[in-house]
Task: structure prediction
Amino acid sequence: MYTPPARFASATFATFHPETPSQQQALRAAEAFTRRLLHPPGFRDRLAAWLGRVPESPPRHGLYLVGPVGTGKTHLLAAMYHALHPTLPCAFLHSSRLFRLPDHPETLAARLADRYRVLCLDEVELDDPANEARLVLILKTLERLGVTLLATSNVEPEKFLSVTLGNDRFRRFLTEEFRARYEVIVVRGEDYRQRLGKPGRAWIGPPEEARARLREAFENDPGRACWFSFDELMEAATHTEHTRLLHRLADCDSLYLADIAIDGTDTALRLLRIIDDLYLHPHPPRLFFSAATPPEAWLRAGETHGLLERGIAEKFARTTSRLTALCEIEPVPAADETPAS
Result:
């Protein structure tokens, strides 16, 4: 039920190819932590350490991989899942799914602990104080019940909301206790998605000209092509149950979105959810779109003023990374511009 997305169904440590020293360190840390879970030190190991007066490090209750988008954190998390399960029963969830589950945090943690020894929590992202409170309660309860946490995030624990908003109860957990309880490994590197072959295309420029290029591609598409203006897609996202909308979009061979424009965080969150779920879908449609500006300019963390808005903008950066993985970006000049000779 709680398993890695289809695109990570065969992820292993052997198929992870580190390109930076921190990625190599993250791979070693993930492998070592996995070995400790599968083969915890026994009495003889502890006795030998004591007789040799080797100071024992306090046991960590989990591993937290943090770093920019596209650096392989989810691959490593899925590799740990596959190496551990089913010897140690594991649950693999995206944090957004965890927050949508209706149970009280302590009840949910107890239910997970009844079935699983390890929780693999992907892309921990907190743009809501209520979700942050929920996460802290879940983590504390899981630790008390003996469930190990393996997690990924783009955000270091000291930069979550409570540290800035001033919730003392959670600030102490995030700034003082978190690194004592969990092994935190930073994973740095270039966004690998920028180097992938792009199955789709995006036209960026004056709206009429960019839309005309998109329409031409749509009319010449030989497969099952679906066309939405961005306003139509947002209307559907508002009034259609998300799973049904996702099935409708994934049923297309190609999806054409005209005139994408982000006018606020609500719109950004709706698009984020659609793109992220399509990206992780086992059979996503090819994506084509038009917009006046490139994806990285749609919502910038530095241009938003509220803490929650900045959190959403930082989360949206992963979505724009995925868009560039799905689409080749093509600038479109204005109709009256003459190409340089």
In short: The chain has two domains: 6-186, 193-331.
